[in-house]
Amino acid sequence: MPYSKFSNAIKFSDENKLLLKVAENKDTPPEVLAELSRSADEFIRVAVALNTSTPRNIIDILSKDSSSWVTGSLSKRYESEISIISIHPTSIINKYAKIGKNVIVGAYTIIHKNVDIGDGTIIGSHCEIGHPAQNSSDSGILIIGKNSYIRSHSIFYEGSYFGDNLITGHHVTVREKTKTGRAFQIGTLSDIQGHCEIGDFVKFHSNVHIGKNSKINNYVWMFPYVVLTNDPHPPSDIAIGVTVEDYVVIATMSIILPGVTLKEGSLVGAHSSVSRDVEKNTVVAGSPAQYLCETSKIKLKDGSGLNAYPWRRHFHRGYLPETIEKWIAEFSKSDADNQFTI
Length: 342
Hints:
There is one protein chain. The protein is α/β, with parallel strands linked by helices and 342 residues long. The chain has 2 domains: 3-74, no CATH class; 92-297, UDP N-Acetylglucosamine Acyltransferase, domain 1 (3 Solenoid). The protein has 7 helices and 30 strands. Strands 1-4-7-10-13-16-19-22-25-28 form a 10-stranded parallel sheet, with no helix packed on it. Strands 18-21-24-27-29-30 form a 6-stranded mixed sheet, with no helix packed on it. Strands 14-17-20-23-26 form a 5-stranded parallel sheet, with no helix packed on it. Strand 29 (282-286) and strand 30 (289-294) form a beta hairpin. It starts with a helix and ends in a 10-residue tail after the last helix.
């Protein structure tokens, strides 16, 4: 839609918030939920999907939604609905573990004593939550935030903290002393080697490896088979982590070497080996990686001719309404003379 129309839409944010409340309300009539399920606003469609009063015929329509966030929300709902009991009888839960309200634990999952699981969390089958740390100095409570979803065969060590709305794929491993913010997503077969700091709304695809002592800021994307290393001359006992600043994108099968800093908004091209710091809003690629251009030089391959970066200018799926409004305001001045499609 043209930018001018999108700007007008922002004026109705209060109305959108009201519609969101209606979509979440269990007393909302089915015909109203049906209308809201066709909303262009992804947040509203997700709210309808998660509303336990939404009729099955509407759920069936939403199951074919183009948004992976909507269909993923339905997957979480289905797992909740088919669970006859919240704690599977084959699971083993230490009596000292703290389990929140409406928590679901799948078959053959083990939850150790140093664990605090937030309300509304789902843990799949064959998981181990709160695995003892290798060193006693790294022990402590493993905190899993509210409304998280840990899929089957995942292992989380004790002594870590995860903000609300954590989502994992299958067969994920997270070692001790990992601290993350809200809405962290870890893809299938990814592993985090511990003693790491990770910010809000960070997204890892499958098979991502994060070396010990890594520091990752907010709104970062890492695509399949990305590796952050930490040993400057392996094998050794030295661990120098990688630093990744806000809005960085690391494309598939790239390796970031110890001590490197990827500065805000930078882009690492696929199959790259990065041994030096990458400057803000620049593109590097190759092995060894070399400077290619400013990120602003890359255009969207949709025929529009618009800039692909900063990506937050046009990609908003899965982020909070207030964050999206902030991003739009950030670029409104520079885009005032241009029409672009969201």
